[in-house]
Amino acid sequence: MIDGLKRAAADVFTRPALWWAIAVVFWIRVGVLTVLTPRRADAEGMWEGARAYLQFPSHMYDSAAEYLARLHIIAPPGGLEAFVSPPAVAALAAPIALLPKPIGVQVWTAIDAIALVLALLLLYRTIGSGHRLAQPFFWLVAGYFPPLFADVLAGQRGCVLLAGAMASIWLERNRASLAGVAGGLAASLKYYPAAMVIGPRPENRIRYAVVLGAVLVLVTVVTFVPLGVGGTLFYYQHVLIPSLASHNPDCAYDSVRTLFMRTIGGEPYAQPAGDGYVMVSSPVHLPGFALLLSYASALFFAAGAAWGAWRSGWNPAYGMSLGFALGALIPNEVWPYQWLPLLPLVLLLVVRGIERRRYKTLAVLGVFLLGFYRAPCDLLFPNLWTIAGVAVFVLAVWENRIFRNETF
Length: 408
Fold this sequence. Notes:
The chain is mainly alpha-helical.
């Protein structure tokens, strides 16, 4: 009887229809909650930045610079004072700035969602798995992944970056120059996709890196032209550099730096309590040591990505995904949606783990992904997201051998 129950359970849990049904539930959740969200502060901020870029580009960063100079942190999203992104982002969003703000915000959210679907299709096509359970699990895990949900819900631009990165990975095999163009366009919006130069095949790497760098520089220069020399220098001196030094105590920030600074550096952070917030700090106060660990970790992650790519035999999809994932691990401040660069790595592990029957790896990955289940501010310690993200990255680097000698 027991054997019969085991066979019945195995039969049920190996049916693709079951996992497709669960995947559909997760994606319905993403769609419904996105539509019902009353406000998208990040998309509103992009609209404000794009409108300023069209109307008064040389002074578009005055509000952000004033806020940074006064409070030494980046302003909450939603207004022009929070727009610290390079002009390429404003140029990207310029068409929606021609629309009324409420309409433009929704149109941008739809564009970001379409870019998400395109990115996932390109990644799955690159993987090219024929396993009957790989595809439903691929879409199920993507639909569950909370940073993806956070990006679409806020109307951010992470999915556009993801689409550019996945296009770059998809093109790398046969069109290395076009792959570099896609990577350069993505890097012009946020610099971290440039780290994908870690992963291309050795015969494509130099050409890929040169094209990516050239496109990045070209787009950056062209989009800065409306600001003029004075506006460009103002951005770098009074916005970009101060924003990199921003240390926001908001519990929604959960970067690797804040993990070390909050646990052993004694840096206070705001935690919800009743109807308000309370400031919490660790009894350990070693800020110098914590800062040293945060810098050392960045070097460790970069070295780990390069080592994993090399150990995989320079599997381009895996190696470039490792480089792309550094965008979640290295920045000083990371919002929940900024963990989205880990998604390609997660999905590669899921698909290859299923194909290779690496059930222990899949189980460990599942436990790590549970660390993202609740929003950081809903947790006793918000940097649980950081721990989960680092764990996923380390697991992916450690499992480099399952990607060796693959053709994708």
